Amino acid sequence: MPSRRYRWLSVLGVILLGLGFSLGSAHAQSKEVVVFAAASLKNALDAAAAGFAKDTGRPTPKISYAASNTLAKQIEAGAPADVFLSADLDWMDYLASKDLIRPDTRINLVGNRLVLIAPKDAMVSLTIGSGFNLAAALGSGKLAMANVDAVPAGKYGKAALERFGVWEAVKSQVAQADNVRGALLLVSRGEAPLGIVYQTDATADPNVKIVGVFPEDSHPPIIYPMAVTKDSIHADAVAFVTYLRSGASKPAFEKQGFTVLNKPASGS
Predict the structure, then answer these.
(1) What's the pLDDT tens digit per position in 206-258?
(2) Which CATH number fits domain 114-218: 3.40.190.10, 3.20.10.10, 3.40.50.300, 3.40.50.880?
(3) From CA 253, how far away is CA 45, in angstroms rounded?
(4) Per-residue pLDDT tens for 38-89?
(5) Could you count the other beta carbons within 10 Å of the beta carbon of residue 266?
(6) Which CATH number, 3.30.200.20, 3.40.190.10, 3.40.640.10, 3.40.980.10, labels domain 31-110+224-264?
(7) At a CB cut-off of 8 Å and minimum separation 6, what does 180 contact?
(8) Residue 246's closest CA among 18, 51, 43?
């Protein structure tokens, strides 16, 4: 039985042929390993990918960034990704349950922190804790968050607000974005007075500032697992994963504020 990847490519081939292109020539021109990665990894992973190309002489990986849930569903549908990096364990577990990753390549790569942000010139002072008055700080404005039902950053944020007993007071004011970078942009543009994002996102945008850090025990641990997909046949897939696990890539992640874990995942 043909693999999911080749079924997906067959469908793509029909589309391309209808547009006057050859699947064979299009595929031949794509020499890079294809990586699907959580949006919050962009700055660090772009730097690591450039380092991989420089240090190994291999093509720079082609990286697609989006919410982890979106990427996982695309892989399930047959999109030809070689490597997946998720912003939480749940979506990697989801693909593992479908037998869509190689368990021997899975590893918990980095960790992150969850923070409350505001525009850089905002006069906001909050101490995050039980019953903290987030609603008063918002006023009539919106709280920017990634989708609270599916996107890892949104799920972490909702869990933390529930933990402190303030979710019910602010849930009607939540402006949900497709991914965490979308939530960051709402605050960066001044369209929302407050937002919940990862610490690494906040430090990457000079137009926002951190006004509170959520205690690590207020939400599930923020862990980014990585694995090669089951259908990948690209020779550089394992090489790139190995590079990301090495000390050579560590500065790229630490510069953005990630905590390098580099630990085998449970059961892998």
Answers:
(1) 999 999 999 999 999 999 999 999 999 998 999 999 999 998 999 999 999 99
(2) 3.40.190.10
(3) 7
(4) 999 999 999 999 999 999 999 999 999 999 999 999 999 999 999 999 999 9
(5) 10
(6) 3.40.190.10
(7) 38, 39, 40, 67, 87, 146, 151, 152, 153, 154, 197, 198, 201
(8) 51
